[in-house]
């Protein structure tokens, strides 16, 4: 049950936010093997004066479409997170026209037992949703 928070400047369209959400979700399904219906995304549009970012960060210019994406999920390997970040950036470019210089990502990992939602059934052997059957390389998988 990953939770995604997307922070961006006020003024985007619902269609744009849908494309951003779909780009992130598709990457999580493909890389983390989460179920298709396991989508919990919250968008936070803030006034430009409350979205403070330098125009050049790490030597790259950042534009008005810059967004900060926070991902919360169970523990994953470093390789999975690297692959996930790459997939999100590629999907955002493809789905919503967002350049990689405008994507800032952070992942917060938490213990599997810290997640709850009605109807969710956890496989006691893996600690993940029982519908997740393709968990090669996942930390704690069998």
TrEMBL record:
Its signal peptide is none
Q: What's this protein's name?
A: Tautomerase family protein
Q: Which domain of life is it from?
A: Bacteria
> Known InterPro entries for this protein?
Tauto_MSAD, Tautomerase/MIF_sf
